């Protein structure tokens, strides 16, 4: 029943499936890193199925090993849709301003549209804050991640004099793990002393907050949050945008925007999967929301 409602909604926003498919022979959805590839594919399968029926063309999921794979797919025109982090959007925009357009942003349960980079460690490691991380191994996810690198690389050095992102200067080693899930697992297993990941910062720590990588790790049975402790939290970061390839036909863009925009109302399970946890759905967003992140990314590149 839910599927029928969503598809009817999509059809009402454009022409018939045959007309919408004019100019495209397939639709390609890119999925940023954060979980292992199969889990990412499983989470997005509901969106893939809805999209395929709404557009009337084969729809494929792509889950590259790193963020750069999605970014390059969007820049090169081999991907049509993705939910990017703010920094990944900035990277895409800085490479090609005309590659994609942001259309939607995730909404938290309190109506806000931000999240946080969360620093964390094992509770039994006797690490309570960044002071206790001196000389220890700190893990970051991906160089193109907003919460997994860009924002903490700017804000953590502001915590106190002497902190840098260079291995061996304050932290014993600064290490890239490859993604949010990898960071969480590495900290939980004791392979690294602390790490950063993303969460909306709402709800209960024991649940991995309401949404984010910690929540997904709890859902997957990878961690017990009672074994972990928060050691740092960033200022609010704007949620990343859902983007569409700018050259897509207008009817296709309208249909996909409506499909995702109304997913929460019509299939909350699918919305949960797409949004990595609890959400009120999505709302429109524009490029202006990300201008500060783009400037931050420019500064880091220098």
From TrEMBL:
Q: Which UniProt keywords apply?
A: Signal
Q: Which InterPro entries match?
A: PhnD, Phosphnate-bd
Signal peptide residues on this chain, from the entry's feature table: 1-21
Would I find Signal among this entry's keywords?
A: yes
Known Gene3D superfamilies for this protein?
Periplasmic binding protein-like II
Keyword Cytoplasm in record: no
What is one term from the GO cellular component aspect held by the record? ATP-binding cassette (ABC) transporter complex
Give GO BP annotations, semicolon-separated.
Answer: organic phosphonate transport; transmembrane transport
Q: Per the similarity annotation, which family is this?
A: Belongs to the phosphate/phosphite/phosphonate binding protein family.
Q: What is this protein called?
A: Phosphate-import protein PhnD
Species of the source: Cognatishimia activa
């Amino acid at each position: 029943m839910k599927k029928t409602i969503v598809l009817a909604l999509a059809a009402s926003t454009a022409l018939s499936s045959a007309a919408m498919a004019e100019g495209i022979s397939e639709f390609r959805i890119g999925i940023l890193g954060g979980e292992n590839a199969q889990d990412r594919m499983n989470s997005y399968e509901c969106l893939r199925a809805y999209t395929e029926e709404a557009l009337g063309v084969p729809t494929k999921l792509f889950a590259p090993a790193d963020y750069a794979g999605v970014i390059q797919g969007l820049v090169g025109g081999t991907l049509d849709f993705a939910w990017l982090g703010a920094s990944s959007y900035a990277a895409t925009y800085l490479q090609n301003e005309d590659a994609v357009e942001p259309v939607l942003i995730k909404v938290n349960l309190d109506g806000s549209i931000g999240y946080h980079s969360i620093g964390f460690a094992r509770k039994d490691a006797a690490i309570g804050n960044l002071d206790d991380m001196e000389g220890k191994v700190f893990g970051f996810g991906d160089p193109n991640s907003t919460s997994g690198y860009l924002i903490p690389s700017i804000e953590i050095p502001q915590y106190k004099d002497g902190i840098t992102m260079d291995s061996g200067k304050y932290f014993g080693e600064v290490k890239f793990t490859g993604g949010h899930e990898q960071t969480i697992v590495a900290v939980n297993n004791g392979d690294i002393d602390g790490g950063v990941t993303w969460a909306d910062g709402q709800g209960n720590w024991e649940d991995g907050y309401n949404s984010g990588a910690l929540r997904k790790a709890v859902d997957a049975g990878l961690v017990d949050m009672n074994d972990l402790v928060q050691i740092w939290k960033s200022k609010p970061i704007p949620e990343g945008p859902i983007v569409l390839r700018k050259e897509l036909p207008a009817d296709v863009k309208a249909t996909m925007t409506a499909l995702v925009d109304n997913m929460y109302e019509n299939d909350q399970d699918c919305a949960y999967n797409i949004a990595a946890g609890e959400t009120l759905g999505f709302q429109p967003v524009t490029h202006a929301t990300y201008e500060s992140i783009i400037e931050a990314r420019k500064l880091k590149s220098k």
